[in-house]
């Protein structure tokens, strides 16, 4: 998934006006067509910036030159750049230009060059006008930076190897790399659970807000989430300490992240027998009374988590309305 790229955009050049005369030596040349404009438009069917990052440069169509018989050249086709929602557009100097946040709304970034006038339009200026035409206006070129802020219903966060990716895989049809080593998830991953969008972010380590580990580049994606699913592996020797350290990291990253409603999910419950798990739950019940304990290898656990997630997300959605 590509969430940022540099892009050069270019509008269309205006077509040149034409010098032409009819059989009676009267001015007859048409005007050039305007060059195409450049727009951006929000599109819910676009999910990242990968295609644009490969193109690097996009251009609207040039206007056609004028023709004889007073025919104007055809206007160049506009260029519409379709972007995923919550894409921020920056000028080359880093100043923010706009945020694409609504589907189907077009915003013009560049005007196409104006078509030049032909000698029929300029004929009122006497013979000099009849022998004159104007060239089309030049195209505009602009370098912009695009940065996608992914929008999701629930984000899955935790220390590396907390089992986040395995959980998201089990809740959806997503299938991406899962392995028992740190930083398996190198990029944000989106998955669909019924109508809800789930996001698995790279594992955070202490100091992510200072640039440590893989967390810093993806912090921006936490801003628009409704629910924070805090995944904690039961393999941790000191679970409460692990929880508190991660909560402190959330606060250091941003108060917005810290304030998102939290749902604690203890992972890898299969390391315990049923009897041992009962004891572990009792041990942690005081600090984590609303947490649930799952193993992705047990279908009933996955279904329980799915229903609980839907219930909490529905509750949050209704409270906002």
Account of the 3D structure:
The protein is of the alpha/beta class and 321 residues long. A hairpin with a 2-residue loop joins strand 10 and strand 11. About 3% of the residues have low confidence.
Count of strand segments: 14
What is the rounded Rg?
29 Å
Question: Biggest sheet, strands in spatial order?
Answer: 10-11-9-12-13-14
Tell me what portion of residues adopts beta-strand conformation.
15-25%
Average of the residue pLDDT scores: 87
Uncertain stretches = 176-185
Query: What characteristic shape results from the CA principal axes?
Result: rod-shaped
How far apart lie the N and C ends? 32 Å
Supply the helix-strand structural class.
alpha/beta
Question: Looking at this structure, what is the CATH superfamily of the largest domain?
Answer: P-loop containing nucleotide triphosphate hydrolases
Annotated CATH topology of the largest domain: Rossmann fold
Summarize the amount of helix as a percent range: 10-25%
């Amino acid at each position: 998934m590509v969430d940022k790229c540099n892009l050069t955009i270019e509008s269309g050049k205006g077509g040149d006006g034409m010098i032409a005369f009819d059989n009676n030596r009267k001015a007859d040349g048409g005007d050039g067509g305007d060059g195409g404009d450049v727009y951006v438009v929000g599109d819910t069917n676009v999910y990242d910036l990968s295609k644009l990052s490969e193109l690097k440069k996009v251009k609207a169509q040039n206007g056609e030159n004028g023709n004889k018989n007073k025919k104007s050249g055809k206007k160049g086709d506009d260029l519409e750049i379709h972007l995923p929602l919550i894409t921020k557009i920056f000028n080359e100097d880093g100043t923010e230009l706009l945020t694409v946040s609504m589907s189907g709304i077009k915003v013009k970034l560049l005007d196409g060059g104006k078509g030049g006038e032909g000698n029929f339009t300029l004929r009122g200026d006497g013979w000099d006008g009849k022998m004159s035409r104007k060239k089309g206006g030049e195209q505009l070129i602009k370098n912009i930076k695009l940065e996608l802020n992914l929008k999701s219903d629930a984000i899955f966060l935790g220390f590396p190897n907390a089992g986040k990716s395995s959980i998201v895989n089990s809740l959806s049809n997503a299938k991406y790399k899962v392995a028992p080593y740190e930083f398996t998830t190198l990029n944000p991953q989106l998955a669909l659970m019924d109508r809800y969008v789930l996001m698995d972010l790279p594992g955070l380590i202490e100091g992510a807000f200072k640039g440590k580990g893989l967390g810093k580049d993806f912090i921006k994606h936490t801003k628009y989430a409704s629910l924070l699913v805090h995944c904690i592996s039961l393999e941790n020797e000191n679970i409460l300490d692990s929880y508190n350290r991660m909560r402190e990291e959330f606060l250091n990253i941003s108060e917005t992240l810290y304030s998102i409603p939290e749902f604690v999910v203890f992972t890898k419950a299969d390391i315990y027998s049923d009897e041992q798990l009962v004891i572990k739950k009792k041990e942690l019940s005081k600090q984590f009374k609303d947490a649930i304990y799952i193993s992705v290898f047990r279908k009933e656990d996955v279904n329980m988590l799915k229903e609980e997630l839907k219930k909490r997300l529905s509750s949050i959605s209704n409270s906002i309305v």
